[in-house]
Design a protein that fits this description.
This protein is mainly alpha-helical and 168 residues long. The chain contains 6 helices and 3 strands. Strands 1-3-2 form a 3-stranded antiparallel beta sheet. The chain is globular.
């Protein structure tokens, strides 16, 4: 059983660094919960749907292969296929054969999906404006740079196209 005592292999993380990590996790979870509640109160789909719709909207030609979509969403990969099924049933995305490879499919944002994304964004943006921006203040640019640096440090080992199983 793992303990909280340090061993020779345990990274050195001081109390302030550990507290910063916990504060980040807590703030992230609470913001997503609040925005999710706001979306629900407005009668809109859950945050996970927004995330999929946004990633597709932001993609070239508004479509991605499912594996590419999984790499881009801020959600767990588990259950993504079922999530896409539900979003497709609502008419917000469609699965289409890839023009160059009929064996592959793309998930494509529909016009209805784009309209839903706009509706959801109004609620989402209000949550950001009311809860996130006042706390971040003028440090928004610095925070973005730090978070992008963190994301890049995690992606870096796989940035050459090698997947986790290829890295060993």
């Amino acid at each position: 059983m793992a303990t909280r005592t340090e061993t020779a292999q345990t990274p050195k993380i001081d109390a302030e660094q550990a507290a910063a990590w916990r504060a980040f996790l807590r703030a992230h979870a609470l913001m997503l919960r609040k925005i999710g509640e706001d979306l629900d109160e407005a009668g809109l789909p859950p945050f996970a749907w927004y995330e999929v719709l946004w990633v597709l909207y932001d993609a070239p030609d508004h479509h991605l292969q499912p594996s590419q979509l999984a790499d881009e969403v801020v959600l767990s990969r588990s259950g993504l296929s079922r999530l896409i099924d539900r979003i497709e049933e609502a008419g917000l995305v469609a699965r289409r054969a890839c023009p160059g490879d009929r064996r592959a499919i793309h998930v494509e944002l529909t016009e209805k999906g784009e309209k839903m994304l706009d509706e959801m964004w109004c609620v989402y943006a209000r949550g950001i404006e009311e809860h996130f921006l006042p706390a971040v203040g003028e440090q928004a640019c610095t925070m973005r740079q730090v978070m992008e640096s963190v994301a890049e440090s995690v992606r870096r080992p796989f940035g050459d196209g090698a997947g986790p199983s290829d890295a060993s």
